[in-house]
């Protein structure tokens, strides 16, 4: 299900599979063909996009003419299927999930492995 990034309204169009650069949401008039609705949008990576060859877009909520735009499915947004997330999850499992609140357990584990 494809949803607007601003209001969550469902976008359905039997004719078009992707919204055009000037298409707006029927619920809130936000642009649909924007970085915030794109499957490849990820803050923190180069140009905030997983496609390394994309050009910089200053207004992530504004319309753009990116040829790589793929409307993110709301079901995909809830799951952690992005490449960086799977690697991060694997590291968290390997090193204890990044839970800093259990410092005494880490010290006890260290002492058990290497002695007092």
| pLDDT < 50 stretches | none
Measured between the Cα atoms of the first and last residue, the distance is 56 Å
Helical region count? 3
Overall spatial form? elongated
The total strand number stands at: 0
The domain count comes to 2
Helix proportion: 25-40%
Write the layout of secondary structure elements.
Layout: H1 74-78, H2 83-94, H3 103-114
Any key phrases for this structure?
116 residues; mainly alpha; 2 domains
Describe this structure in words.
The chain is an all-alpha fold. The protein has 3 helices and no strands. It has 2 domains: 1-79, no CATH class; 80-116, no CATH class. It has helices at residues 74-78, 83-94, 103-114. It starts with 73 loop residues before the first helix and ends with a helix.
Summarize the structure.
The chain is mostly helical and 116 residues long. It has 3 helices and no strands. It has 2 domains: 79 residues, no CATH class; 37 residues, no CATH class.
């Amino acid at each position: 299900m494809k949803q607007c990034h601003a209001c969550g309204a469902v976008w359905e169009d039997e004719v078009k599979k992707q919204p055009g650069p000037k298409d707006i949401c029927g619920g809130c008039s936000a642009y649909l063909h924007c970085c915030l609705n794109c499957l490849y949008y990820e803050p923190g990576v180069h140009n905030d996009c997983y496609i390394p060859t994309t050009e910089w877009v200053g207004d992530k909520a504004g319309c753009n003419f990116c040829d790589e735009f793929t409307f993110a499915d709301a079901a995909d947004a809830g799951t952690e299927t992005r490449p960086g997330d799977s690697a991060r999850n694997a590291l968290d499992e390997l090193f204890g999930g990044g839970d800093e609140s259990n410092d005494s357990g880490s010290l006890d584990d260290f002492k058990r492995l290497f002695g007092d």
